[in-house]
Amino acid sequence: MSKSLKMKLKAGALIGAVALSAFAGRGQASADYTTKFTTSITYQNVGSASASVQLDIYNSSGAAVGSLTRTLPANGADSIFVGGIAALGADFNGAGALSSDQPLVATLVQLPDANSTVKNRPLSNGFADGTDRVLIATVLKATFGTSTKFSIQNIDSAPANIAIKFYNTSNVLVHTINANNVPANSAYYVSAHDLAALGASFNGAVIADSTRVAGGAGKIVGSAMELEVSGQRATAFEGVQGGSSTVYMATALCNAFGGSTTNYAVQNAGSTSTDVTVTYQGGGTETKTVGAGAKASFNTCAVKAAGYSGAATVTTSNNGSIVVVGKASGPGVLATAFVGASSGAATLAHPYIRWSAANFDQGGRNRQRGNIAIQNVGSATVNNVLVKYFDRDGQLVGTHTIASIPAGGKANSNPTLATLTAGYAGGTTLAEFGYYASGTGGGATIQAPTNSTLISVVRISSAPATGTVSEDYSGQPIQ
Description:
- With 479 residues, the chain is mainly beta.
- It is built from no helices and 38 strands.
């Protein structure tokens, strides 16, 4: 039986607390929607000193049911396998928080049951804090052969009433769940596939609002997984805590790299209808009108020709407010998801990077490759971008120097493009980055000159016997 965990990397009493989210399917592991997942928490110390890290785990009543502590050197990137925590028992759905005396970033890796047909590992990021509203930009029930599971976590210190509203693509409020008196620290799970009120099928988005039972704004975070009803595709992405008038997408594809294409799910987070325009790098636009709370979908191939690989910017009319989830699909079972960025930063972190040259395509599912797409969303060229690859002990394994990225342009990085640090004796090479005799671990930071505005997305791929599978997650700004 599998264990799973919904968590948060929240900003609590300690400096570097993080709120994380994860999911456990129940039932037979014969298709995506019933596959059981077990969470591995990958996390990186982005501070300047060694970090004392604590993971606290909570059940559905908000009660602490277990904890563990770790020490992580500065720049180190390690993982915690939740399935190894005996106190959780079997089939655990819960919540948790990582806290630290140094700032952390974290990405959750969902590991499917070994007997499942699902072979990829859905990824979603943790949160530094929460707000009283969470937007899930795409929610499906038996649509495109896919249904959604999502969870909303109350990361406040007091119980909350959470209103979860489902809007279809026609801007109709189809259903509301009133989750009342949700305990502090606990997570409320929703399976769209099992909601009769959504009808036989549903295509739309969700807005969740939290109010303290005693009055006043609450504080929540959220994450979602999209799972094929009877297939092998599974993806994950985090909820967004607020919209913006412009969202940047570091990846846009039309039948590229063997047939991969991106779609964007755009949710209107505002209170009035707005026109949404997607502008693709190199030229070409598409515009649709989206009602308040509703979503619209954009396919890159509706504008760009086959073979296109670039980036996109999504904007609104009348200073509207939107959130965007990007999805890539391709041949076989390729399916990914990532959240667009409302702004860029000079420094970004990716706590989960692996690269296997020799053992990637041997039919196993434990060797992976991580490719980073970096977009300059500023108005001027950025020079001398450094992508630094760190092992789990915080040692600099190698550095990839990107000479320049033009305004609006993008560049790619992976460990094989980096120069090995002179004298590094970590027992690994850049051709097998993140793999050790005693386990795994490794991450990267992207460092650009002050005032640069970069965004990034990592695609983690593996090659089990069923064919290459991948999942995406977004870079996290380092403050």
